[in-house]
Amino acid sequence: xxxxxxxxxxxxxxxxxxxxxxxxxxxxxxxxxxxxxxxxxxxxxxxxxxxxxxxxxxxxxxxxxxxxxxxxxxxxxxxxxxxxxxxxxxxxxxxxxxxxxxxxxxxxxxxxxxxxxxxxxxxxxxxxxxxxxxxxxxxxxxxxxxxxxxxxxxxxxxxxxxxxxxx
Length: 167
What we know:
Blueprint: E1 3-18, H1 20-33, E2 37-48, E3 51-63, E4 68-88, E5 91-111, H2 121-134, H3 136-165
Antiparallel strand pairs: 1-5, 2-3, 3-4, 4-5
Helix pairs in contact: 1-3
């Protein structure tokens, strides 16, 4: 069985004026540049009055080695998004006003993701020895990689939202 260890949980919170489409594309590009495959599991919109609520769930994964795999779960929760007009460099542009904008990010390290060590009891025994005595340093290194990617993604999205809000 694949061992999945949650390494880090982060979130980005924002309220104000920004551009949802640009933020969505920027987040997708950031993860794609890190060679993550991105699957959109959920995209739902609920329109209420003059605003809309959006819920999006992404599953992102990337093989780090033949034994380790990084998975990132990204959940967008936007409440009360409405269209507004803004001005950038003297030109009127369509933007979005957010009552509440939140992105939850969870970084997970998967070990033996292909299940090669699951054949028999002896394989499982050797897998435990492998984990305990052979690769603890390597496991730490991979956990650090996942943590750095999640923290980098969080900081980049936070900066992006703040930057677009100040235009």
